[in-house]
Every structure is written in structure tokens, then in C-alpha cells.
């Protein structure tokens, strides 16, 4: 696995004083956002957050990503931990394809149907960089912030202990009800 890493830099933010470290795998650049002293915590809070430009940055109401990111920033800011900002936009189909998937959703498809119609699997994410990051930061035990059973399974398969799962449920709205429903019914998310 050819992964390049950056040095660690300070990042004061409105959510807390963090440090950041970047990882580059092929053409994807990921970011780890760390609370100041997470190394001293036996089992830090961790969120593996999948990039969602429309949600994270623009506050799209079609998904729950921005709310989840803010929840995670608050958790690690207050209690200590880290966020792996996993830059696999649109469950790793990329931004352009995600916008095409959204256009299909405008015509009535759900989030899974739209991906399949575009020739992708329902979820194309690959978490191998997460394994690298856990080893790089010497993380062996975590409290994982997620509703996604696949992420739990993956982390456990790496031999990293999950001492607690923190639910990442945030307020739904009229635009993301169907999306959340599909996550629950199709992907088995704990919602
Ligand atoms: N292809 C596609 N990707 C989407 C769509 N809506 C959100 N995403 C992407 O889905 C990813 C977020 O995944 P989710 O399934 O919402 O949640 P999760 O990360 O699996 O699980 P949690 O840890 O519980 O949040 C981000 O990369 C979003 O860009 C969509 O309609 N189509
Ligand atoms: Zn989103």
C-alpha cells in the first residue's frame, strides 16, 4: 500500500483546538482531525466520516452528513478523539457521478437504485486507508461514532476493539426521510 503522510499541524477551529494530519493514497487525499491529547485516552472517540461536499459544506438537506460531522466535531472537541475525514465522495463514486445520481433521484429513484442505474455498486467505499491510519496513530481501542454496521464489522476485522458504539442519529427532515429510510431498510443502519 503506497500511502504518503504529512507532518502534524495545528488547526484551531470554532469546534476546538485540533491537530490535523493528511494521508495520500493514489489520487485521494484524506485528513485526520485530532483532539489535542487523544493519545492519552485509552479508548478515544472516533468517527470515520465519508466526504459529502453537498452536505458537509453546503448544508444539503438531502442527507444527514453535515449534522453528523458537527456532532463528531463536538464529541472529539469535548471528550477527545479523532475524525478520519475519508475523501470518498458519494460512497466513492465521486462528485460528478453523485450529482448524476441525485438527478436520477429527482426522477424518483432511491439512493441505491440511482447508483445501480449508473453502473456502480450501491456502496463503492474502500476502507484500506483506515487500517493504515489506525496503525500509524497506534490506535487499538476506540469508541466508534456511527450507525453503519459495515464500518463496525470492518474496524473489528482489523483487530481494533470497539468499546462502545456512539449513535450518529441527527434530526431528519422532509428531504432526507426517504434517504434515511433506505439506509435503514437496505443497508441495515441502526436508525
Ligand atoms: N452515491 C451516493 N452517495 C451518497 C448519496 N447520499 C449521500 N451519499 C454519500 O454517502 C456517504 C455517507 O454515507 P452514509 O451512507 O450517509 O453514512 P455512512 O457513512 O455509511 O454511515 P454513518 O457512519 O452512520 O454515517 C458520503 O460519501 C455521501 O457523499 C447518494 O444519494 N448517492
Ligand atoms: Zn451527505
Tell me what the structure shows:
By secondary structure, the chain is an alpha/beta fold. The protein has one domain: Rossmann fold, CATH 3.40.50.10990. Helix content is 37%, strand content 26%. The protein has helices at 53-57, 65-79, 89-92, 95-106, 111-117, 128-136, 149-157, 177-185, and strands spanning 3-5, 9-13, 16-25, 28-35, 45-50, 81-86, 141-145, 161-166. Strands 1, 2, 3, 4, 5, 6, 7 and 8 form an 8-stranded mixed β-sheet that branches. Helix 4 (95-106) packs across helix 5. The N and C termini lie far apart (34 Å). The relative contact order is 0.16. The model has no long low-confidence stretch (mean pLDDT 95). The chain binds guanosine-5'-triphosphate and zinc ion. Residues 50-52, 63, 65, 68, 88-91, 93, 98, 101, 111, 115, 146-148, 151, 168, 183, 189 line the site of guanosine-5'-triphosphate (GTP).
Q: Would you kindly provide a brief summary of this structure?
A:
The protein has 191 residues and is an alpha/beta fold. Helices cover 37% and strands 26% of the residues.
